[in-house]
Inverse folding.
């Protein structure tokens, strides 16, 4: 999932990863969007076994508000927006993570638009859930996307 709606683009200059006050964060609309997405998934009887997130505050907050349980941060999910040179290594790490997931477990991943585009070759809007499955060659096959309307 791309994190829920956070007004603006990128992060302010000189933001600090561990300090939410310096980052672009969710607003009330984004918080509602994250809750509604979690509710919609539960309503359909889909069980989420684990949740991982980028260490960015907007991703961690989205992941927590989905309501699927504890959230584990993964450094390879950090935004590529300000670090395009990391696209190869971070995308490879994400693909390896997806490939290693047990087939009977569903892991929900919250990250950023640039990371999703690097993984599946297409951009996605804030709050959209991209569904992928591991491929035999260690990649991730795009199956589709889901967007929950909150208005």
């Amino acid at each position: 999932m791309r994190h829920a709606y956070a007004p603006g683009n990128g992060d302010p200059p000189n933001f600090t990863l561990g300090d939410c006050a310096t980052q672009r964060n969710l607003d009330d609309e984004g918080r509602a969007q994250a809750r509604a997405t979690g509710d919609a998934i539960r309503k359909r009887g889909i069980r989420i076994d684990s949740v991982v997130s980028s260490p960015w505050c907007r991703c961690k907050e989205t992941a927590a508000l989905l309501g699927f349980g504890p959230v584990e941060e993964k450094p390879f999910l950090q935004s590529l927006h300000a670090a395009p040179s990391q696209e190869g290594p971070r995308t490879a790490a994400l693909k390896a993570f997806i490939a290693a997931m047990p087939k009977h477990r569903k892991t929900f991943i919250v990250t950023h638009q640039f990371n999703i585009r690097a993984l599946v070759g297409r951009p996605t809007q804030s709050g959209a859930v991209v569904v992928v499955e591991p491929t035999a060659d260690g990649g991730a096959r795009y199956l589709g996307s889901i967007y929950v309307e909150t208005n």
The mean pLDDT is 94. Residues 131 and 144 are 5 Å apart (CA to CA). Residues 23-146 form a domain with the Rossmann fold fold (CATH 3.40.50.1240).
